[in-house]
Amino acid sequence: MRTIGLIPRLGKGDALSLARELSSFLSSRGYEPLIEAEGCSGAAGVPSAPGAELAARADLLVALGGDGTLIHAAGLLRGREVPILGINLGTLGFLTEVARDQALPLLEQALAGSLPVSRRLMLEVEVRNDGNRLLSGLCLNDVVVSKNALSRLARLEAFVDGQLAAIYEADGLIVSTPTGSTAYSLSAGGPIVYPTLEAVLLTPICPHTLTQRPLVLPAALPLRVRLASQGEMFVTLDGAVGRALGEGDEVAVQRAPNRLLLLRNPQVDPFSILREKLRWGQR
User: Fold this and answer.
1) What angle is formed at CA 206 by the lines to CA 205 and CA 208, rounded to 5 degrees?
2) For the chain, which terminal residue's Cβ has fewer other Cβ atoms within 10 angstroms, N or C?
3) Same domain, 138 and 47
């Protein structure tokens, strides 16, 4: 492990300040630190590289920000199974488990290879029409099909393993990983799923039929969502990339062959995170 990529949250001064501190720490121990150039624009004397280049070279990524920063770092890897350490400088921080004052000691443990690793399911997504591929990519959290502010309810046909499972008349549909179960899916009424479970969630957004509830499915089953109505709908992958959908467009989702390697803070566990972040048991 020689090259360490540092991904500071864009526009957050304390993230860049911490990135510089960690960079000096790493250099003093013989490592090659690189800060994502997009996150240190205008900062002189900082070893940096564009995000895609950094992710292609790095043996370890350190995300400095919130969960969005870590998801951004995961997207830069494009399927490379490189461990990511998340240092929380944001608000909730379900994925970024390391507090600011733990950054240096846990980075030392990461470099020594002594931190536990959580292998997180990712989704492989393809948007197509009549066999033509319109968009493709990987997701850590979710694939969201949703309407714009002026659209009517959409008619969405969901197929599981090639068979029609449900027809939703709704504002949209969320296909989520267990990692993403505490994100948009949770806000839409979906369940919290243990983060390493091999499962995929289907959560409708404001369904017209209230009996249509979220589904938890085996991750091995391929999914397909077809827009069967007119009106402006959009598909987004991890809230980062997307495109408009037209009638007849399909969103195909399957388990990706690669995993996200998330380095864990040994002082916390998934339930302690839920108790802290969601204030379970507090009135």
Assistant:
1) 125
2) C
3) no
Residue 282 lies in a domain: no
What average pLDDT values come out for the chain (283 residues) when binned by 10 residues? Answer: 88 84 93 86 73 94 94 93 93 86 95 96 95 93 87 89 95 96 95 96 92 94 94 91 93 97 93 85 71
Q: Which domain holds residue 69?
A: 3-116+264-277
* Active-site annotation holds for 67: yes
Per annotation, catalytic residue among 14, 59, 67, 101: 67
DSSP 186: H
Tell me, yes or no, whether 283 lies in a domain. Answer: no
Residue 188 tokens, joined: 């839409």
Report how far residue 128's alpha carbon sits from residue 268's, in angstroms, rounded to the nearest whole number. Answer: 41
pTM equals 0.92
Strands 32-36, 3-8: pairing is parallel
Number of domains present in the structure of the chain: 2
Residue 66 in tokens: 């919130």
Residue 159 shares a structural domain with residue 269: no
